[in-house]
Design a protein that fits this description.
- There is one protein chain.
- It contains seven helices and no strands.
- It is mostly helical.
- It has two domains: 87 residues, no CATH class; 68 residues.
- The two termini are 42 Å apart.
- This is SWT1 protein.
Length: 210
């Protein structure tokens, strides 16, 4: 209902919408650090300048990262796995042209995508267990940890905003003159929502303690 650019979208318009609504919308669905991915795609795809094969490889990988992140929310009626598979095939073809080894089989890649949502939910509730034999952490591990911290921060921020909204709703019902902000949820919904949030915050606290 409130949108920077109305559909139907071109790719340029879509990337503009991503950037415009990133903090308010998309940053709550995927890690906010992926804004750099959107900016990278926008920088290279929204121009008439040609680019070399290394840039193509970068754009394909960034596209995969973005699609993979959104897969944790939904498969979007099967459209997202198809798009992901298409980008993966392009990566493979580019690797074959350049004579580079293909990093991952397509079927395996798509399977990883479909399992991503379940894996992320498990990771969110399972403590990180390290093998005692691992003496050194790889750089990729640190990057993964940083992304996980961003995701956790986004979840906590989302919980706080929801609690704030429900609190406003409750105070408005108790004293309409105290708050003028209009909301759509009923008093019962707000009260039940707060109960669920209390349980969620308790789980988060226990997880942090672990």
């Amino acid at each position: 209902q409130i949108l920077y650019l109305k559909p139907p979208w071109t790719l340029v318009n879509l990337l503009k919408c991503y950037k415009k609504h990133w903090m308010a919308v998309f940053g709550y669905v995927v890690p906010r650090t992926l804004l750099s991915t959107v900016e990278c795609l926008s920088k290279h795809l929204c121009t008439d300048k040609p680019f070399d094969s290394s840039t193509v490889r970068l754009l394909l990988q960034e596209s995969k990262n973005l699609l993979h992140a959104f897969s944790s929310r939904s498969d979007y009626n099967g459209v997202l796995p198809q798009a992901y598979a298409g980008v993966t095939r392009l990566c493979q073809k580019l690797g074959e042209v350049r004579g580079a080894p293909v990093e991952q089989d397509l079927s395996e890649d798509v399977m990883v995508l479909s399992e991503n949502a379940a894996c992320e939910k498990m990771e969110a509730t399972t403590p990180n267990v390290q093998n005692s034999e691992d003496k050194e952490l790889q750089p990729s591990f640190h990057v993964a940890q940083e992304n996980r911290h961003q995701e956790i921060w986004s979840v906590l921020e989302g919980v706080w905003k929801t609690m704030n909204l429900y609190s406003i709703e409750i105070f408005q019902k108790l004293d309409p003159s105290a708050v003028t902000m209009a909301t759509k949820s009923s008093f019962e919904e707000a009260f039940l929502g707060l109960q669920k949030l209390l349980a969620a915050v308790k789980d988060i606290r226990e997880g942090i303690s672990r």
